[in-house]
Specification:
Helix content is about 75%, strand content about 0%. The chain is globular. The chain contains 16 helices and no strands. It has one domain: Growth Hormone, Chain: A (Up-down Bundle), CATH 1.20.1250.20. By secondary structure, it is an all-alpha fold.
Length: about 400
Amino acid sequence: MPPSDSHSEPSDRALLYVARALRGLGDGFAIIVLPAYLSALDMTTGEIGIVVSASLLGTALFTLAIGFVAPRHDLRTLLLAGAALMAATGLAFPNVAWLAPIAIVAFIGTINPSTGDLGVLVPLEHAMLARGASDEERTHVFARYSLIGALSMAAGSLAAALPDVLVRAGYGNVAALKVMFYVYAALGIAAFLLYRRLPHAQADAPRATAPLGPSRGIVYRLAALFSLDAFAGGFVVQSLLALWLFERFDMTLSGASLFFFWASTLSAFSYPVAAWLSKRIGLVNTMVFTHIPSSLFLIVAAFAPNLTLALVCLSFRAALSQMDVPTRTSYVMAVVTPEERPAAASVTAVPRSLASSVSPALTGALLATPFAGLPLIACGVLKIVYDLALLYSFRHTKPPEEKA
């Protein structure tokens, strides 16, 4: 591995953290409001699954494009373009009402129906954070980044109860849900203003002949494994998990909002624990041995006879399932050269988005079967297979800080 990049200004890192918080806040309520909004438009579960799949597929393609464009362009300019797209997404959703145009907006836009941090802005922020972090502090930098994102998503989940408040104040149900999309647009504008304060930042190797070089094999193998994990996760993206709770237990929007707030909070505080644990057992071991128990809790939740037991199992899952997020990001940034980081972040994220774009459509059909818990079981089993494959393939590929 080449030496670490020079440190960036702490104020620049703080701007990226605040922008991440704004995006997380928007995603937090959007992924709950979106299925409620589509249901209010009388869409079927199958149609909602199609919209979710369109969103994930579009996210994948745009993220791939950004990852390969970034090494040759100003990262600040690309961040501004992504924030503008976020604002446009929020403005477009309330003004379309049919499946085809909604699917198009979902495909082009930035609303992410998954709890994972996917999207065109992610590889750009990852590359900018990694270029200013030493090997020793890198995992902690991404743990803080993930912590901020998860806490803001938790706050956003709580904010998803606002439409119920507006309805009691006299708004129609659809009108109240549309308000939230305009709030999402406002958050995109705020992120745009923050990115404007960043310095112009050319990627580490603007003259590179290819975005991926010596680390190509590692990146492709990681991408293949991450795609299996994402395909599994697509069965229970948060929007569809909320829909399962609505359909299976008649859970209210306010109840779902409160639950996802606490679930996101549990996930958030697992990130510093993941950074601490990774220093003791390694990044790969932390990813695997926290992920497997979370999958088992998800499988048990599928058989829960009542809402209370289901929420308990899902809460334990939330406390464990995202501990691989900062460790995975840190690992990818560590095992590639600095100039490959934007493309590596993109190439490992895109298969995840592509794979996860397929399973939501299948979930829509599975939710209509007599046993609506099938998506949860499929997700849990496939994720365990992924964890075992990751451990087998990369247990001997160490990041620089673990080679000493």
